[in-house]
Write a structure and sequence with these properties.
With 194 residues, the chain is an alpha+beta fold. The protein folds into two domains: 1-104, 3-Layer(aba) Sandwich (Aminopeptidase); 122-194, 3-Layer(aba) Sandwich (Aminopeptidase), CATH 3.40.630. Helix content is 26%, strand content 29%.
């Protein structure tokens, strides 16, 4: 397994990455990329010059041939610069459901940190939606004190914010009703340089 830049000239890897994006987000954000065309658009946008688009690939023997192998995408991570390049948004991160809990997401995040640090970035941040009620702050009215609810957040069903905390991110905010009533967006951030 290795982490590489997603090649802008490899239609097969681009489509495989888009399919991974669609399937990988169905549990947590089912409306994020509902069609292959939506996912392909997201992947193509990640290939813009100022962005980072990295994939974890593995060589797999092709069963239809004797000695050939092909690359398969196990995970994808993207980054977009903001605030004059001081802060970067991690968007998105997805790991093949059949390869989760094997350190791939952790390795992709560490790689993104290195890439951002090399570009002079200080902070990586992300939004992690709760559209499906996986946290204690979903399906309730967070007003008038959303920060109080955020301080008492509980992960009820494997929400990704728990993964991000394990790799050093801290919850730094919330947008109540970002995806509709009772569907907040949880913001996390991590300092990567001093």
């Amino acid at each position: 397994m290795e982490i590489i830049d997603l090649p802008s000239d490899n239609a097969d890897l681009i489509e495989t990455t888009a399919r991974l994006l669609m399937t990988g987000f169905q549990t947590f954000a089912p409306h994020a990329w509902p069609t292959l065309e939506d996912a392909l658009e997201e992947v193509r946008e990640s290939l813009e010059d100022d962005r980072i688009s990295r994939i974890m690939v593995s060589e797999v023997k092709d069963p239809t041939t004797t000695n050939q192998s092909r690359r398969t995408v196990l995970g994808w991570i993207g980054g977009m610069p903001h605030y004059n390049g001081h802060s970067w948004e991690l968007h998105p991160l997805v790991v093949s459901p059949s390869h989760q809990r094997r350190g791939i997401g952790r390795r992709l995040v560490a790689d993104l940190e290195t890439q951002v640090r090399q570009r002079g970035g200080c902070t990586i941040y992300l939004g992690s939606d709760d559209e499906t009620g996986l946290t204690s702050i979903a399906n309730i009215d967070l007003y008038p004190n959303p920060l109080q609810h955020l301080m008492e957040i509980q992960n009820l069903g494997g929400h990704p914010y728990g993964f991000y905390q394990k790799v050093g991110f801290a919850i730094v905010g919330v947008i109540p009703d970002a995806n509709g009533p009772g569907k907040p967006d949880i913001f996390l951030a991590k300092r990567i340089s001093h």
